[in-house]
Amino acid sequence: MNRMEKLKEYLKAQPEDPFLNHALALEYSKEGELDLARELFIRLLQLHPAYVGSYYHLAALLLQQNQRDAAIEWYEKGMAVAKKAGDTHAFNELRAAYDDVMDV
């Protein structure tokens, strides 16, 4: 059983687990299934808006799909969540990525 199959199996028991959904979205992204990854990241952030790491990955994925404005929006949302949570590390990573996009 590969990693994606294992994650799907675990999700049957815990369908809303943020870590498992995040990991599955990353696997979809690695496999080039960008639309599935995007949908999963968005659903995850709707259910668990404080799951800060997903904002970064969703925005980066959107950039791959040439959706710059949407990526900027998700970076901004992520920065706001990270700031509110006092997660300086996540905020700084999101900010650096955001600044890179804005410099283009």
Can you describe this structure?
It is a single chain. The longest helix is centred in the C-terminal third of the chain and has 18 residues, at 68-85. It is globular, with a radius of gyration of 14 Å. The mean pLDDT is 96. The chain contains six helices and no strands. The chain is mainly α and 104 residues long. It has a single domain (3-102), classed as Serine Threonine Protein Phosphatase 5, Tetratricopeptide repeat (Alpha Horseshoe), CATH 1.25.40.10. It has helices at 3-13, 18-30, 34-47, 53-64, 68-85, 88-102.
Beta percentage is under 5%
Total discrete domains: 1
Shape: globular
What does the average pLDDT come to?
96
Number of strands: 0
Structural class: mainly alpha
The DSSP helix count reads 6
Q: What fraction, in percent, of the residue positions are helical?
A: over 70%
Order of helices and strands: HHHHHH
Low-confidence stretches: none
How far is it from the N-terminal to the C-terminal residue, by CA? Answer: 42 Å
Within CATH, the superfamily carries the name: Tetratricopeptide repeat domain
